[in-house]
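A student in our group prepared the protein record below, which I am reviewing. What it holds is a sequence and that sequence's fold in C-alpha cell form. My question to you is simply how this chain folds and whether the C-alpha cells agree. Do not assume that whoever made the record got everything right. I have pasted the whole thing underneath without changing anything:
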Amino acid sequence: MIGSSLWSFALVVGLLTLTPGLDTALILRTAALGRRRGAWGVVLGIQAGTLVWGALTSLGVTAVLTASHLAYEALRWAGAAYLVWMGARMLIGTFRGEAPGDQGEPEATAVLDSMTRGFRQGLTTNLLNPKVGAFYVAVLPQFIPAGAAPLAMGVLLASVHAALGLIWSTVLVAFARVLRERLRTTRARRLLDRITGTVIAGFGVRLALGD
C-alpha cells in the first residue's frame, strides 16, 4: 500500500517538477552565471522548503493556512513582494553597470557566501509561495494510506518530491554549464539577468493578482 502511494505520488510531483517555473529560472540563472555552488545552494534551499511544506501539511498547519483567508493573503502578499523585489533588484543591477549576479559585492565575498545565499534564496522563495502549501494540502492527504503515521508518511512523500527535484536540478545545472560558454560577455550576462529578473517579477505580479 505504501509502495503504491509512493509511486503514484512520484508520478504526480514528477510531472510538476518538469514543468518550467520559478525554480527552473532561479537555478538556470545562478548556474549559467558561473555560480555553481550558489546554484546548488538554491536547489538545496528549494528542496528544504519542500520538506518543510510536507511536514507542515502532515501536522495540519497548512490546512489552517488555507482555511484562514487572512493568513493566506498575508503569505501571498509577502511572497509577491519578495519576488518583485528580487526581480527588480536583478533588473536595476544591470542598468547600474554592476557585474551580473554580484549586486556590487566583492568577488571573494560572493564566492564564500554563494552557497549560503543561494540556500536562503531558494528556501525563502519556496516557503513564501502559498500555492505550494495549497498544493500539498490538496494532494498529500490523498496519498497517505489508512493506518500510516501521518507525519512520517508525509515527510516520506515530500522526500520523494525533493529527490525528484534534485535529479532534475542536476540536469538543469549541467545544461547551464553548456549555456555558460555563450555567456562569457558582460552584455550576454546582463541580458540573462534582465530576462530572469522580468520572469521572477512577473511571477510576483501573478501571485499578487491571485492568478
Remarks:
- The two ends are 36 Å apart (CA to CA).
- The longest helix spans residues 150-180.
